[in-house]
Every structure is written in structure tokens, then in C-alpha cells.
Design a protein that fits this description.
Order of helices and strands: EEHEHHHHHHHHHHHHHHH
Distance between the termini: 97 Å
Strand order of the largest sheet: 2-1-3
CATH architecture of the largest domain: Up-down Bundle
Number of domains: 3
Number of strands: 3
CATH topology of the largest domain: Receptor-associated Protein
Strand content: 5-15%
Number of helices: 16
Largest sheet: 3 strands, antiparallel
CATH class of the largest domain: Mainly Alpha
Helix content: over 70%
CATH superfamily of the largest domain: Type II secretion system (T2SS), domain F
């Protein structure tokens, strides 16, 4: 059944927008009038993805976005509806009425239309890769094949909510240090650029030899005041160059190696990659996805080409008859404790449970490390700002002390 977008007026004359499914535009208008909504414009929206030659999206559409939290909530609701025994199309129809985001509502209506046409839910979801990831689509496909779609959707909701909660804790932990860094930088910039020149102007008019710290302070102040734009431009150019370099195969490889080897942060990045590996692989295996297929999906979401190469090698060796634990033992990037837990899981037949335990362990470890790091950042930043302010004060006071000695 086609899906139509409409602009209409309600009984109070207020403009409203929405979507409606009907056999035709005339039927859509009749349904709207039956609901005491007076359509101004009704146009069909297609469920097909945009091709390379299709018309560009409108600015308003580009500005809208669908948050991962909205997808997790919708997944949970769909799981509950299917678990209650409702058919898939009826469940999607009920879900659409609960969605408040207009863009998400439109996409869900397109998914419902695709399912109505005889496509599977996984196929309908795959038309929207920006909203539904590869792991999401493959888990849904496995759930449809095994007849346990409601259980798989419930696990997907758990996975999405867990990732959102973890990202929320990280952002909360980093919010204060980042805020403090920017405020401190702005204060120091204002102090050196506008306040210091007014104070040091009297020293330059004296034509007296100034101490080295004072000369350095005046030079830094003059440079920032005259070439602050050059510093910003250099930083922007540096960011652009690094981003372009990262897009090359060599740059991507070096960047990922650096992420794993850099002091302090390297340990955090490695543990985050292992936690993502365990959580995703465990969820896929619980959904009934075969091990080889699950590993091929996981390699695309670990967000590190080094770990992805290890997974590729593991796939090749598993196809030759080796176990997952034996293949990962050869890699320096997988900790011994994680490999041992995987080995126990394979021997006991509870690999999915052990992978989830690995994810829980390393996620807690990463969270504690980030909390410790952020707690150390605050005093370090205060110390650095104190040293800079102290240098400024000393540089200003030194000429005053010399003048005082000359007067005596």
C-alpha cells in the first residue's frame, strides 16, 4: 500500500504535517477528511532508496536526524508487540503511530510498505543503512529465519540501550575537563592579547633593558594579537590534512596502530575494541548467526583495521578447522585473559555467555580508566594554567623590581 506525505489544517486552522498509507491519493484525502483534517497537499513517498541521479534532499530533511536512542526504543516496542502475538504489519502500524520524529515516522512507513509488498523485514531495513546498521539487519534476518524475531529484537534493544548508556557515561566524564580546557584557553588568550599589552606598554616606553621573561611575554602577546588568525588557520589546515591522510590505506593503518600504541589512551582503545568485539559477536551468536558470518560482520564494526586483520586471519583458520581461541592466541592485540575465557566458552558450549562477560569486564575496566584519567586531568589543567598565570605575573613584576632597585 503506498505511503503519502501530507500538509493539512486541523479544525483550529493550525498547520500539521504527517504521513498516511492509502490505496491512492484520493483515498488518502478521504481518510484525512474523515478524521476532520483538511489536506492542503498530498504526495506519495517512495520506499526505494535514493539513486545517484535522484533529486537532492531538501535542507529541512538534511537538518533532521534520527538518534540511536529512538531506534532502540522503537526496537523494544516492536519486540513487545510481536511477543504479544500481533502480526508484523499490524505491529509496524502500531509502532508508526507512536513515533514522534517525522523523518523516522516516514522511514518506518516505508518499511511497512516494503513488508506489505512481500519483502522480509531484514530486506526492508537494509534499504536504510544509515539508520539500521549491518549488525542490526543481519540479526533481524537471523531472527526471521529462526522464528524468534521478537527475542532477537529484544536483544538488539538491549545492545542499543547498553551502548547509549556507555557513551553517555563517557561524555559525562569528559564534559567538565573539556569545558574547563576551552574556558581556560579563552581566558588566557584574552589575558595575553588584551590585558598584558596595556600593562607592558609602560616598560617599552622606558627604553630600558627588560628581563628575558618579560621580553618573551611581550613577544608572545604581540604575536597572538597580530597573528591569532594564522594559528586558527594552521590548526584547521592540520585537521584537514590529518583527515585526508587517514582516508588513504597507509594513513588509516598508521592511525589505527597509533591508537593502539599511544601511552594511556592506547590501552583504553584496545580494551574498547575487545569489548565491542565481545558484545557484538556474542549478540550475533545468540541470534543464531553462524560463527563465520558473525565474525565477518564484527570485523566491520570494531573500528580498527589492525583488529579487523586479526579477525580475517581467524576466519581463515576457523575454516581450516581450528578453534576461535587458538587463532586469537597468535595475536598480540587480544589479551590472554580474553582468549582463555573464549577457550572456556568453546569447551563448555557457552561461547555467547563468555563473550558477553568479556564485554562486561572490559567495559567496566575502560570506564574506570576514563574516570581515573579525567579525575587526573582536572588538577593537571589547573596546574598548567597556574604556571602560565604565574609566568605572566613574574614577567610583569620583574621590571618593577628592577626599577625599584634603581630608584634606591
Amino acid at each position: 500500500m503506498p505511503v503519502y506525505e501530507y500538509k493539512a489544517l486541523d479544525r483550529a486552522g493550525k498547520n500539521i504535517n504527517g504521513i498516511i498509507d492509502a490505496d491512492s491519493a484520493v483515498a488518502a484525502r478521504q481518510r484525512l477528511r474523515g478524521s476532520e483534517i483538511f489536506p492542503v497537499e498530498v504526495k506519495e513517498t517512495s520506499s526505494k532508496p535514493r539513486g545517484p541521479h535522484s533529486a537532492p534532499a531538501s535542507i529541512s530533511t538534511l537538518l533532521k536526524r534520527i538518534r540511536p536512542g529512538e531506534v532502540a526504543v522503537a526496537t523494544r516496542q516492536l519486540s513487545i508487540l510481536l511477543g504479544a502475538g500481533m502480526p508484523l504489519v499490524a505491529s509496524l502500524d502500531a509502532l508508526i503511530s507512536q513515533v514522534t520524529n517525522p523523518l523516522f515516522k516516514k522511514i518506518m512507513a516505508q518499511i511497512k510498505e516494503s513488508v506489505n509488498e512481500g519483502n522480509s523485514l531484514a530486506h526492508a531495513l537494509s534499504d536504510h543503512p544509515r539508520i539500521f546498521s549491518n549488525i542490526y539487519v543481519n540479526m533481524v534476518r537471523a531472527g526471521e529465519a529462526s522464528g524468534s524475531l521478537d527475542v532477537v529484537l529484544d536483544r538488539l534493544a538491549d545492545l542499543g540501550e547498553h551502548q547509549q548508556a556507555l557513551q553517555g557515561r563517557f561524555k559525562a566524564a569528559l564534559a567538565y575537563p573539556v569545558f574547563m580546557f576551552f574556558i581556560g584557553t579563552l581566558v588566557l588568550f584574552f589575558l595575553i592579547t588584551f590585558i598584558v599589552p596595556n600593562i607592558t606598554q609602560i616598560f617599552k616606553e622606558m627604553h630600558h633593558t627588560l628581563p628575558l621573561p618579560t621580553v618573551a611575554l611581550i613577544g608572545a602577546s604581540n604575536f597572538l594579537k597580530s597573528f591569532w588568525w594564522l594559528i586558527i588557520l594552521a590548526m584547521m589546515c592540520g585537521v584537514v590534512v590529518i583527515r585526508q591522510f587517514k582516508k588513504t590505506p597507509k594513513g588509516h593503518y598508521l592511525w589505527d596502530v597509533t591508537k593502539l600504541r599511544i601511552p594511556v589512551l592506547g590501552s583504553i582503545n584496545k580494551k574498547m575494541a575487545i569489548a565491542r568485539f565481545g558484545r557484538t559477536l556474542g549478540s550475533l551468536l545468540q541470534a543464531g548467526v553462524p560463527l563465520i558470518s558473525a565474525l565477518q560482520i564484527v570485523r566491520n564494526i570494531v573500528n580498527n583495521v589492525i583488529i579487523a586483520d586479526v579477525i580475517d586471519k581467524a576466519v581463515e583458520e576457523i575454516q581450516e578447522g581450528k578453534s576461535l581461541a587458538n587463532t586469537l592466541t597468535q595475536s598480540q592485540w587480544f589479551p590472554t585473559i580474553a582468549v582463555q575465557m573464549i577457550s572456556v566458552g568453546e569447551q563448555s558450549g557457552e561461547l555467547e555467555t563468555m563473550l558477553n562477560k568479556i564485554a562486561d569486564t572490559y567495559e567496566r575496566d575502560v570506564e574506570s580508566q576514563i574516570m581515573a584519567m579525567t579525575s587526573m586531568l582536572e588538577p593537571v589543567m589547573i596546574l598548567i594554567m597556574g604556571l602560565i598565570v604565574g609566568f605572566i605575573v613574574i614577567s610583569i613584576l620583574l621590571p618593577i623590581f628592577e626599577m625599584n632597585q634603581m630608584i634606591r
